[in-house]
Design goal:
mainly alpha, 10 helices, flat
């Protein structure tokens, strides 16, 4: 699958890489998890003194993996909606990924007859970008003080060229007989995104659910995602933890 993250600039612009650990700390993840979960885990040896020698991420993993907090060993005693939300999000994500692989295979086969599919990208000032990245590029250039009229002319040209690329890609899909498959991939992507958005707003009813939601979100952040749902999920989980005794 294509890497949809924003491309690095080649014009001497500073690379302001986000410190993801600092951002996580800003959500109060460590404080919330430590305050609630170690009180519940003390009897199982996961106490604050013993945990001080390991990292905060390891603490969360220890808690999430411990039998006291495993969903499968709760015997249905806890009814936490977040587990079902996580399962559904993962299921729809797997479905989307499977269709993406099918799409890649179909495109590879079609190239033998129709050549490569036109990429949904255009070149603008050392960038290869598409979609919302074009708008972001415009804002970046204006923020850097480039001539506004020149930037606006280039922006309109970039948008027009991008529309042409999209149309060319659609024509290629028609010739290759991939319109139906492309629609399935697009619908699966929308369904996966919607499920993750719902999950990120599902309030955990248990410590186990909150930790599971945080762990899932942190994994996505580590994968360098540009999605917004992981940060919403962490906020939802930490707020829920703060209300638990």
């Amino acid at each position: 699958m294509p890497n949809t993250s924003i491309r690095a600039a080649a014009e001497g612009m500073p690379n302001k890489k986000i410190n993801r650990r600092s951002m996580l700390a800003g959500f109060g993840v460590t404080a919330a998890v430590t305050a609630v979960t170690f009180r519940k885990a003390e009897s199982s040896g996961l106490n604050e003194a013993g945990a001080s020698s390991v990292g905060k991420e390891s603490q969360m993993n220890m808690i999430a993996n411990h039998s006291q907090f495993r969903e499968t060993e709760l015997g249905g005693q806890w009814k936490d909606p977040v587990f079902a939300a996580i399962r559904e999000a993962k299921r729809l994500d797997r479905r989307w990924i499977a269709l993406c692989r099918e799409e890649d295979d179909a495109e590879m086969e079609a190239r033998k007859e129709f050549g490569s599919r036109p990429a949904a990208l255009i070149h603008w000032r050392n960038y290869y970008i598409g979609g919302s990245e074009i708008d972001q590029r415009r804002e970046s250039l204006l923020d850097l003080g480039f001539d506004q009229e020149q930037v606006e002319r280039e922006y309109l040209d970039a948008k027009a060229r991008y529309r042409s690329q999209i149309a060319a890609g659609g024509d290629w899909d028609q010739r290759a007989g991939l319109v139906s498959l492309k629609a399935k991939v697009n619908n699966a992507h929308k369904a996966s995104k919607a499920a993750h958005d719902r999950m990120s707003l599902t309030v955990p009813a248990t410590v186990a659910g909150a930790v599971a939601l945080i762990n899932y979100a942190v994994k996505d952040i580590k994968d360098d995602t540009v999605a917004a749902w992981p940060w919403r999920a962490i906020g939802t989980a930490t707020k829920a933890l703060a209300t638990m005794n």
